[in-house]
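Consider the tokenized backbone below.
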């Protein structure tokens, strides 16, 4: 290491002793220049800028040429571009983290080649974009996929399928193509409010239940929702949702995966919930005993054992509001349209 000082007073470092190490980091480990700069500072106490490193690499005749864009790389760029508002440099960083040797410029070239633009300019291009928007929405409506989607769901659906469109165009097109659907989604057609549903916090209550609307077609669905955050904890799809062992295994798998369980579980008195309720009770009692708590009633009298209601609640399915709300959204968003299409055929006897 040299102790020379430039005319401006900035210390100059000799990188020749570290040339092989830098080459290994850049071309074998595919580290970025910023990462190499940080490595040199942390390991050898060499403080240089990325610009200095870039200039030294040019003096050594090194060039970090990005690898050709493979189909897998293009797919990652497409997903990253349409799933959020990431810049080209952020997408390039994701590619590098995934093991690809890419650059911001390469991401930009791939985007432009596939016409994945962030902004459309010119009246002609705007008209073509709106026409494309109308074609895609009309196609999705004919398939029944977006029949009950509001603006936000429709926007997210189009983004997931790699279709970029303007918000105003989307609203105008959906009003023209599906005026009845827009009218039915108006607030005056929505059901009455059920009032407040107060939960203390996350994992205070899990609302679990099965969905039987597709039972006649051999599809059973079972799931659970955190009543506070309304986050879906799990969703099972199989040939039956009425098996005690299956539901118990689903519950245990979720508990092991997230390493937590609810304070209280909530379901109807279906035949499939017995073992799950026993597991929830055992976990709750074990947690109370670890905290050296003793069972008491609301008057402070000591009880011989913990009551089930401290850890699990049974009630009607219609009163199990959180999971029923999720089933209602599932029917409005997806299942309802399919039931309309396949139910008449299923009822036909040959």
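A designed sequence for it:
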């Amino acid at each position: 290491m040299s102790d020379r000082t430039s005319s401006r007073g900035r210390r100059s470092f000799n990188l020749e002793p570290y040339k092989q190490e830098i080459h290994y980091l850049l071309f074998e480990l595919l580290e970025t220049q910023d990462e190499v700069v940080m490595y040199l500072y942390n390991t050898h106490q060499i403080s240089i800028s990325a610009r200095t490193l870039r200039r030294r690499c040019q003096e050594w005749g090194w060039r970090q040429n990005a690898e050709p864009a493979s189909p897998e790389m293009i797919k990652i760029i497409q997903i990253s571009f349409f799933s959020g508002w990431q810049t080209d440099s952020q997408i390039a960083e994701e590619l590098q983290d995934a093991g690809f040797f890419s650059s911001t410029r390469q991401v930009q070239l791939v985007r432009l080649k596939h016409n994945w633009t962030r902004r459309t300019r010119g009246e002609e291009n705007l008209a073509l974009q709106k026409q494309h928007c109308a074609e895609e929405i009309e196609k999705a409506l004919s398939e029944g996929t977006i029949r009950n989607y509001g603006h936000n769901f429709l926007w997210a659906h189009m983004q997931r399928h790699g279709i970029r469109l303007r918000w105003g165009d989307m609203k105008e097109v959906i009003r023209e193509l599906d005026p009845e659907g827009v009218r039915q989604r108006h607030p005056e057609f929505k059901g009455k409010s059920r009032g407040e549903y107060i939960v203390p916090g996350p994992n205070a209550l899990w609302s679990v239940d099965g969905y039987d609307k597709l039972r006649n077609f051999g599809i059973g669905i079972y799931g659970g929702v955190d009543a506070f955050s309304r986050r879906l904890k799990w969703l099972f799809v199989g040939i039956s949702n009425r098996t005690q062992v299956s539901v118990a295994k689903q519950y245990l798998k979720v508990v092991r995966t997230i390493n937590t369980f609810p304070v209280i579980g909530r379901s109807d008195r279906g035949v499939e919930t017995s073992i799950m309720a026993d597991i929830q009770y055992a976990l709750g009692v074990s947690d109370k005993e670890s905290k050296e708590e003793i069972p008491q009633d609301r008057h402070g009298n000591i009880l011989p054992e913990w009551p089930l209601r401290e850890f699990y609640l049974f009630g009607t399915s219609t009163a199990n509001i959180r999971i029923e709300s999720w089933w209602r959204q599932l029917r409005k968003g997806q299942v309802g349209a399919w039931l309309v299409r396949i139910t008449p055929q299923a009822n036909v006897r040959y």
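The CA atoms of residues 204 and 263 lie 5 Å apart.
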